[in-house]
Specification:
Helix content is 52%, strand content 17%. The chain has 13 helices and twelve strands. The strands form two sheets. The chain has a six-stranded parallel sheet with strand order 2-1-3-4-5-11, sandwiched between helices. Strands 7-6-8-9-10-12 form a six-stranded mixed sheet, with helices on both faces. Helix 4 packs parallel to helix 5. The longest helix is centred in the last third of the chain and has 18 residues.
Length: 324
């Protein structure tokens, strides 16, 4: 969206050369060169990702590609411990960055430091989690999916699949977005939904916990995981437990796309992480360049989109290159 606006601004300056300039900017972006001549501002993104999280790899890739186009010096850091994430935000403030992107999985731990950034005159965009707190904390806008709405979509999809008893697997205790997903699913689901809390930093423990639950309750006919890496753990647990439960998941990656194609997974809920990273950088650039703000005080939604086997073929190539 930011790229489109940049092209429109260029075209407005001189109609006779606007088309040529647009082509030049598109070519520059494709070649990994800046498509604008604005100052080389520094933007920092600080997320609650743990190590090796493929979802956040996709967010980061989107942000990095937008940063190249927008002539941005991009800094990325992450920590799944809320206090450590807050310290990383403080480090970005100390560096006097020109823009800040932050996730609010545990908003109480982030409130004070985000307020410091805003007070220091650093424009803030929140992504992925914390949509309810974003405006209160002083952010320009929030980019992501409404987790409650996403959960409700899952409940509706489970109803359409005639499921009766569902296990919702939460892999990060204290993550408000995860709680909202399972609560939203429970709200619209006509059957019984039970939460299962696991240690997402220990994948063997995740698999064992799901397996034990499936073994002890054969009436569970669906398992919903809240992140793509955990869907594979649920598939393994299902096989070991001898369960017939359908495995469904939030988020999409190459392995999930393959799982959909092979009928190992029923459906996935995509919130388009590449778009979250890309638009966060682009919106900060637009704000610095032209004081533009999207959303009108409401979140800019990137999901949810329910992905099934019918959709997986069309998305497989994008997942393999790490952008879906």
């Amino acid at each position: 969206m930011g790229a489109v606006l940049a092209v429109m601004l260029a075209a407005a300056g001189c109609s006779s050369t606007g088309g040529k300039r647009a082509e030049e900017r598109a070519a520059a972006a494709a070649e990994g060169r800046a498509a604008v001549n604005t100052p080389r501002w520094t933007f920092a993104m600080v997320t609650h990702s743990g190590d090796g999280d493929t979802f956040w790899d996709i967010v980061q890739k989107g942000a990095e590609q937008a940063a190249v186009k927008d002539n941005i010096n991009f800094l990325y850091s992450h920590n799944d411990e809320a206090n450590q994430q807050a310290q990383l935000v403080q480090t970005a403030i100390d560096k006097k960055v020109d823009g800040l992107i932050v996730s609010l999985a545990k908003p109480d731990a982030m409130k004070a430091v985000v307020a410091k950034a805003v007070k220091a005159g650093i424009p803030v965009v929140t992504v992925n989690s914390g949509s309810a707190e974003s405006k209160e904390f002083g952010a320009l806008t929030h980019i992501g999916q409404d987790e409650t709405i996403a959960g409700e979509a899952v409940g509706d999809e489970l109803n359409g699949r005639d499921r009766k008893k569902v296990l919702c697997v939460l892999h990060e205790q204290g993550n408000v977005g995860h709680e909202q997903r399972c609560a939203g699913a429970k709200k619209t689901f006509d059957g019984t939904l039970q939460n299962l809390y696991v240690d997402g930093t220990n994948m063997p423990d995740v698999t064992a916990s799901i397996e034990a639950k499936l073994q002890s309750d054969k009436s569970i006919d669906a398992v919903v995981t809240l992140g793509a890496p955990f869907a594979d753990a649920a598939v393994q647990a299902k096989q070991t437990a001898g369960s017939d439960a359908e495995i469904d998941t939030f988020d999409l990656n190459a392995k999930v796309a393959t799982g959909l194609q092979d009928d190992k997974l029923g459906f996935a809920v995509d919130q388009q992480p590449y778009l979250q990273g890309y638009e966060a950088v682009d919106l900060l650039w637009l704000y610095r360049y032209n004081r533009n703000v999207l959303g009108g005080g409401l979140p800019v939604l990137t999901g949810p989109q329910v992905i099934t086997k019918d959709d997986a073929d069309a998305l497989a190539d994008y997942t393999k290159r790490g952008t879906r």
